[in-house]
Design a protein that fits this description.
Blueprint lengths: L5 H10 L7 H6 L9 E4 L3 E5 L9 E5 L11 H22 L3 E5 L16 E6 L6 H5 L9 H12 L2
Antiparallel strand pairs: 1-2, 2-3, 3-5, 4-5
Helix pairs in contact: 3-5
C-alpha cells in the first residue's frame, strides 16, 4: 500500500523543482510569517510548520547548516535541535492535548525523506485512533484546523 502522505510530499517536491537552493535554505532567508511557516529561530536551527502536515501541529526542527547526514551536524547544533523539539512537544501538548508524539529524522530518500538534501527532525502530535477509515482506506488525511490557524496558535503559544 502506498504511504498515506506520499501524494502531499510529492506535490511539495514537484512545486519546488527548479529552485537553485534547497527549500529549507530558502526559508531561512524569508521573514517569519504564515506564508513562510517559520515559528521560531534559534541560534543554529529553526522551527517550521510542515506545509503538508500528517496531523495538526506537525512541526520540523531544521539546522541552518545544509547537511544531509546526522554525523555532519556539530554537537551544539544537535543539542539545540533536541531543546527545540522538547519545547515543541510542550507547546503542542498545551494547545492540542495529544496522546503521544512521533519524533523522527528520515535520513535519505530511501528512508522517506521528502527533502533528503537538508536534514530535519519531525515532531508529529498523535492521538489514539488518528488512523481512521478515511486516512487508511481513502488515503486522505482530514485535518480539523486550517494551516493558518495552526500557525498562529503555535506561533503565539511559543512566545508565552
Amino acid at each position: 500500500m502506498e504511504h498515506l502522505w506520499t501524494p502531499w510530499r510529492m506535490r511539495y517536491i514537484n512545486e519546488h523543482k527548479g529552485y537553485d537552493s534547497c527549500v529549507f535554505c530558502v526559508a531561512q532567508e524569508l521573514e517569519d510569517c504564515f506564508e513562510n511557516l517559520i515559528i521560531f529561530r534559534g541560534e543554529q536551527t529553526f522551527v517550521i510548520l510542515n506545509r503538508y502536515p500528517y496531523n495538526n501541529g506537525h512541526l520540523m526542527v531544521v539546522p541552518n547548516q545544509h547537511v544531509d547526514r546526522l554525523e555532519d551536524i556539530p554537537p551544539e547544533v544537535q543539542e539545540e535541535m533536541m531543546i527545540l523539539a522538547t519545547k515543541a512537544t510542550i507547546v503542542l501538548r498545551k494547545l492540542y492535548h495529544p496522546h503521544g508524539f512521533n519524533l523522527g529524522i528520515n535520513i535519505g530518500s530511501a528512508a522517506g525523506a521528502g527533502i533528503a538534501e537538508h536534514l530535519h527532525m519531525h515532531i508529529v502530535p498523535r492521538w489514539s485512533g488518528d488512523n481512521n477509515f478515511v486516512s487508511v482506506i481513502g488515503q486522505t488525511r482530514v485535518l480539523p484546523e486550517e494551516l493558518s490557524e495552526t500557525y498562529q496558535r503555535i506561533y503565539d503559544a511559543w512566545r508565552e
